[in-house]
Amino acid sequence: MKKQWFGNVRGDILSGMTVALALIPEAIAFGIVIKRESNT
After folding, report:
1. Is the pTM of this model over 0.70?
2. Start-to-end Cα distance in the chain
3. Distances in whole angstroms, Cα of residue 24 to Cα of each of 7, 15, 30, 39, 40
């Protein structure tokens, strides 16, 4: 059971970092949109 969970730690960390980096521009864009809407 543990071997299934920890079998590919390097790949899991790499994919997690990739997803996190991909979400950064989306979060910035949402922040800009919300800031513009709150100014009006």
Report:
1. no
2. 55
3. 28, 15, 10, 23, 25
Q: Longest C-alpha distance within the chain, in Å? A: 55
* Tens of pLDDT, residues 1-38: 666 777 889 999 999 999 999 999 999 999 999 998 88
DSSP string, 1-40: -HHHHTTTHHHHHHHHHHHHHHHHHHHHHHHHHHHHHHH-
What amino acid occupies position 33? V
